[in-house]
UniProtKB/TrEMBL annotation:
InterPro entries: Mpv17_PMP22. It is a multi-pass membrane protein. This is Mitochondrial inner membrane protein Mpv17. The chain crosses the membrane at residues 52-73, 94-114. GO terms for cellular component: membrane; mitochondrion. One of its GO terms (molecular function) is channel activity.
Amino acid sequence: MALWRAYQRALTAHPWKVQVLTAGSLMGLGDVISQQLVERRGLQAHKTGRTLTMVSLGCGFVGPVVGGWYKVLDRLIPGTTRVDALKKMLLDQGGFAPCFLGCFLSLVGTLNGLSAQDNWAKLQQDYPDALITNYYLWPAVQLANFYLVPLHYRLAVVQCVAVIWNSYLSWKAHRL
């Protein structure tokens, strides 16, 4: 509980920084889980650079973009009723999620040094399956998130659930 209170104080004092660092940390954790539990690389074969890339993506892309999106979404649909939460989830999953996922996978490919042609081919291969998998998890999570969670905690809640999702995305994005 002391750790949670410290997190709340930091979030209150520096909301943007804490949200971005939370996203980066949990993206990195997702990659560690992917490499160690899914791919079973072992510590000797762990690709530290890959984990650092995921941390960087969390801090430089996921945190700012998703955190900013939640602010925009709250301005577009300011209420907190069940109907408002449903509208937010539909807009999030129907508009934002497909675009965000495509950008994320493309960015990972670019950071991994893929040529534009190879990146496009990988995106065509991975995107449909990743988007379908997204729809198994995120609509329910986001509906609860938009209905039950205050705006300043939404990114943290999503990133905690996303540790497993990030493991999947890291595995999907780094599969050759």
